[in-house]
Design a protein that fits this description.
9 helices; two-stranded antiparallel ribbon; 290 residues; alpha/beta; Nucleotidyltransferase, domain 5; 7 strands; 2 domains
Amino acid sequence: MKALACELPASSGVPLSRWSTEEVAREAMERGLVASISGTTVWRWLSEDAIRPFYHRSWIFPRDPDFAEKAGRVLDLYEGRWAGEPLGAEEYVISADEKTSIQARHRRCHQTLPATTDTPMRVEHEYERGGALAYLAAWDVHRARLFGRCESKNGIEPFDSLVEQVMREEPYASADRVFWIVDNGSSHRGERSVNRLQGEWPNLRLIHLPTHASWLNQIEIYFSVVQRKVLTPNDFADLEVLAERLLAFQERYEQVAEPFAWKFTRHDLDRLLSRLAEHQPLMSSSVIAA
């Protein structure tokens, strides 16, 4: 039964993407493994070995040929080092990105109700859309400072405005170097973005993450906080109210913020890439066979 639950349903012609315990029980009876069994019994047996065929996790192989080098230098910056040397007192690390297409949902059929002693907050599902905006933010990795702005859309001009917002303020304006960690979004992609931003701000150093490595960008941690604490559930009268709430939360969060306890190091990166390398030949063989 446990072996059956660990099979992909499609491998035996079953038109399912993943098993439920009831489906495992049904398949076991159709195969003649047992005369009769309930989904509850299957669940109990699978729980003995923490087998949960109804769950799934996604993953992706690093495709950037320079993944280790690019990721490693970002991890070094998080630890306060660059090119093998400690960062100076006048050197700073900024993590930045955009959170796009944030909708203002409003005009619900019924008013949102607060939680009571025996019921959670209740939010009516139906709503009207009041437009969308982009929230651009920058996080000082070692000083826990936040900068942000709301724009009608993302792009080169809005991102450059965020950079200007930070770089015109002290201590960044007179800093020796300010490292900006960014992903490969269209507003800050490639050598053109390096030339553009470093040409405008001589003490700025633009550091690109590898492809498919936004999980290494600390600003994404802050964005997840925003999603949980501000945007879910989303109930805003219009875009102006949405923007005001985002910036008010940013100010509130910064008052108590501390640097994130980042624990993923170069050593962890090396172990991860070594483990993936063991699977890469198997993956390549399956692609060729297909």
